[in-house]
């Protein structure tokens, strides 16, 4: 491959496809030209094989404007407001009492009404998640959700509280230990007098990519853990201080989790969720596509920890609640900040990524810079997700430096010019995620042209927004999913 050279520019490539209109010709001319494939592969973009219209930016300079001096480390996860009891939900007529503790009864009933209007004939079923099939699928997808050990479950004819048993043995309530599981079957080369794996930072990142995709993840990225990037890791995780010390090996006590100073890289990886499932989720709370992604993430994370340990290095897992996902994803080039604020919009999969996982390691990695494919600019004129929110919690209008409505969530104000969802009042229903225009399948030439256009000019963004609404590419009837011949895990791995 390295011996194959071509001087075909993007303009000529578009012409060869017959796309010779003045508008698109101008767009192609504006795009950077790679003179040969060596230039492509030497670019950090080549790690994840992003489409040609994705542009790299300078490090720590994503498309969303930042005010770095104002950013400070967060003390923990976002705040939530006190919620009514199950009895309060039942009294208000919410079926099943409630399947979550994140809504008020009024919000649950509002969501029922919104779903019934969007999908005539839809009913909340006995648990508020839809019919019996959907409820069963949703509940089955929650096993070890967020990496939490299950509570009471049947084992050997007895009800066993796995989480309680693990904690009684001095373990963590989640399947995401700081130091990794460190299985006795995972050997380290240095323990046997063998040298640790030695590779260039680029080779190491590609090595991690191969392992991550084998275990079930998707794209990868990396950051250097300096004082700025550390700001997006919480100062406390599970009540313990997260600190950096001059030590050789990471460790954990009852009061702190310690990062050796030599662990100066952050490995990021994404986990996709079912596109068709995402478009068809409805009900009282986030449904099966979301829950199953949350149950897969911890398993893949600890397997990556064991893989890196097997190379002879450390991999530290702060857990999904130990850092701010969206900023790290934007700084590492996984995607761009958008109106929903979370999840991050990616060039290939839109927002059908549940989360971007972060591990801290001393394995040298090639940092990947922020990218620009026009998502931030497109969100300025779109707003489909905000219009779709049954509760009006997604910030409308232009990006701002502050959003008072989100301040109650504990979200820092004045640190970036973008959008902030009011997560304290958000019931985490699945409505907004299924509406994003960037979710569209990549196998459509029309969608590829649209995305390439958006990446290079905002002139047609309003037109494309209206086209998205007219063509109805977003949410679909939940009942249709049961008749689909979908991909394994609901994920098309061809892109």
From TrEMBL:
It comes from the Bacteria. Gene3D superfamilies: 3.30.70.20. Its main location: membrane. One of its GO terms (cellular component) is plasma membrane. PROSITE patterns: 4FE4S_FER_1, 4FE4S_FER_2, TAT. It is found in: Cell membrane. Keywords: 4Fe-4S, Cell membrane, Iron, Iron-sulfur, Membrane, Metal-binding, Signal. Its cofactor is corrinoid. The keyword ATP-binding does not apply. One of its GO terms (molecular function) is 4 iron, 4 sulfur cluster binding. Residues 367-399 form the 4Fe-4S ferredoxin-type domain. The keyword Iron-sulfur applies. InterPro entries: 4Fe4S_Fe-S-bd, 4Fe4S_Fe_S_CS, RDH, RDH_dom, TAT_signal, TAT_signal_bac_arc. This is Reductive dehalogenase. The lineage of its organism: Bacteria, Bacillati, Chloroflexota, Dehalococcoidia, Dehalococcoidales.
